[in-house]
Amino acid sequence: MIAEDAATLFGILSNADRLGVIRALVEAGPDGMKAGDIARKIRASPSRASFHLNALSESGFLHRERRSRTLNYRIDFKTIGALITFLMEDCCKGSAELRNCCSMRLS
Q1: Is the Cβ–Cβ distance between 79 and 9 less than 8 Å?
Q2: CA 86 – CA 75 distance, rounded (Å)
Q3: Which H or E element spans position 86?
Q4: Distance separating alpha carbons of residues 45 and 100, to the nearest angstrom
Q5: For the sheet containing 62-67, what is the strand order?
Q6: What is the pTM of this model?
Q7: 6: confidence class by pLDDT, cuts 50, 70, 90
């Protein structure tokens, strides 16, 4: 990933509701979630959630699938992974000992 593409993706994520959507869908895993469930999870009105879901879908962060009368959204783990890799690829100048900071979970 090049810096310009990463900057564009970070721009898309520079909103608390969108970050909430991403976190909810990462937690949901490959099955994703219905749009209404996402709206409730991030405490957004359906129209506000729809606005953010559309932006995230158009940017490649999400896959949208119609199931009967509802829309289901899934995270695109390749896009998220590429963005994280872009950030971390030069972490700690390759030092295995220092790189452990990147694998520790925050509590």
Answers
A1: yes
A2: 18
A3: helix 77-88
A4: 40
A5: 33-34, 70-75, 62-67
A6: 0.78
A7: confident
What pLDDT, in 10s, does the model give residues 37-93? 999 999 999 999 999 999 999 999 999 999 888 889 999 999 888 888 888 776 666
- How many Cα atoms within 13 Å fall on the side-chain side of residue 20? 15
Q: How many angstroms separate the CA atoms of 12 and 32, rounded?
A: 20
How far apart CA 6 and CA 82 sit, in angstroms, is: 9
Q: What pLDDT is recorded for position 64?
A: 92
Domains of the chain, first to last: 3-103 (1.10.10.10)
Residue located via tokens 């359906």: 46
pLDDT score recorded for residue 91: 66
**CA atoms of 107 and 104, how far apart (whole Å):** 9
